[in-house]
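Many introductory courses stop at the sequence. We go one step further.
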Amino acid sequence: MYRVMLYCTLFYLPLNLDDIDSMEDEPGVLDRIKKARRAHLDEYVSQELFELRAAGAFLHELIKDVLDADDFDRLKDICLATGPAVILKAHKAKSSSAFEDALEVEVMSSGEDNALFGGFLAAPIAAICPPTPIWDALLDDAQGHSEPCTQCGGVAVLWKKSNWKRLINVDFCALLLGNLNENEVETAALLDLFMADKGRCSSDVVIAEIYDMRTADLCSACVNRLVGAHLHLWLFKRKVADGWTPTQNCWYGYNCKTQLHKRDHAKSKNHLCAPIR
């Protein structure tokens, strides 16, 4: 995610609509900007480009949650350009106000498409590295070779210590047990950790801290089961390590339904625990 942050910092310009129109009308300006974006991305290897593409797709999903359906296609890339921090702020607030603060109001409300931000990240990546099967990008040592999973015995392309980092850590959010993946407080805490800079909680770090599986070669289903079964406990320990004082456990733990619609309850009780009722 830090590569997306860098890219947005380099190529997002907080312009008003008149400035954008002027740049689009001035001969050669758009081409120079697009060439600069591509030149920057050309420095990355294929695996890194696929990770960037996956991160961009994930951020688009967060953006979709707070924009009207009619506006999403028009605004998704200019909102993406504001960067992960603004997108996370909008996601937490369940409001587009963070984008409105980062952008000129007229940019959000004009109803016009703009060529400056269309395909902001996806277009230059596609030009450098056209889409291929995801396994080719993520599994650097598999090369299409299937092996028996050491957990379930099924024959598949396996995840190993050498390629754990190719997993996209934000995808782990969906693996939280019970109703935790819809608990706004805990998912926000998890996203904060995953989107932190310097790879502090990259997927390989998460897996290594969850379970000692350095000799285990696992299929995707078994990796998901492993991470899903322990992720809430890992998050609990990480929050404590970062200074959080644990609150009283909710009787219903990660299965609690109240945590879904009462933020005060989600915040005042700990749901990173097994239910006792």
